Amino acid sequence: MPTHARTGTTLRSLVLIPVAIGVAAGAAVFIWMFLVPHQRIGKVGDPGSSKALRVTRKGRLNQSPKTTTTTSTLVAPLLGKTIVLDPGHNGGNFQAPAYIDQPVWNGREAEACDTTGTETASGYTEAQFNFTVAAEVQRDLEALGATVILTRTTNSGVGPCITQRTAIGNQAHAAVALSIHADGGPISGRGFVILEPVADGPNDNVVAASDELALDLRGSFAAETGMPESTYDGLDGLAPRDDLAGVNLTTVPKVFIECGNMKNATDAALLIDPTWQQRAAAAIAQALEMFVLQASPLASTAESISRSSPVRTVERRLSSAMHRTTAAYRERISTGRSLPPPGSREQGMP
After folding, report:
1. Catalytic residue among 111, 224, 258, 289, which?
2. Would residue 258 show up in a list of annotated catalytic residues for this protein?
3. Considering the entire predicted model, what is its pTM?
4. Quick one: which of 208, 219, 327, 345 has its CA closest to 283?
5. pLDDT in tens, 156-214
């Protein structure tokens, strides 16, 4: 072969070799990226993640920041957390007046061990509603990994007493506890209300956290259920209470929710509807999940600052003061007492 021919062949070989290497490398990358299965690390913000959305305090759904986490955290974000649900009253209380009427100490005064609860005009009992919704909330929370304890496991028993219900949450060192109820208010009144604790000694260390729980629950319940805030109790869906053993004696964050007024026809139509009950349960579960996760050591510094901000403190104090004023004036009107002159301060008035 002539020298120039050999030289041309050599040059062509030198050109073709890199091309061949490049083609082979490209094929390898293609196979690695598209044909070889890989284990995917989930992210909170991924569209396919069940935790991609969070309910804010206003009850709106927002995208969470994208942060890498483990698969177990995504699937069970409440793993290791204990939550106590207290379905108010019990189906057998109607047949046990001697038991439920026995006096117990609620932290301030004596009150009945338990009551029968209310019912709709059609006879659907509050005890049944409370238990049905609590069972739905339990399923939702257990699906998130939480350990859920119910203060009663059927709707055919009696009690337990209100002091025992509170003790169950305290002894479990629950991350949060919630009493689920429906109200028996005036026929013309509508809406839900969250009953918050007032400092009473045993509950002193959890009043602030319970206030935050109330805000979380109010936002979620209003956004997800369509039930308005109460038109006849509390202020803006919140009502501080110092006459309930459930909040007076608690040592864990706890509130009550009155999900609606069973004596009002519009509210009652929702309260007896199984589909609405599931929506109510989902809203409650969302609020409890948000509270527990925000209260964990991994909560952000910004959220911690927000919880203790002077604005939030003033908001809570104003709400409590306005509620006390409204209650005092309502009592005066109902008893026929005259109203005090403007600017005066009397016993019982803020």
Report:
1. 258
2. yes
3. 0.69
4. 219
5. 999 999 999 999 999 999 999 999 999 999 999 999 999 999 999 999 999 999 999 99
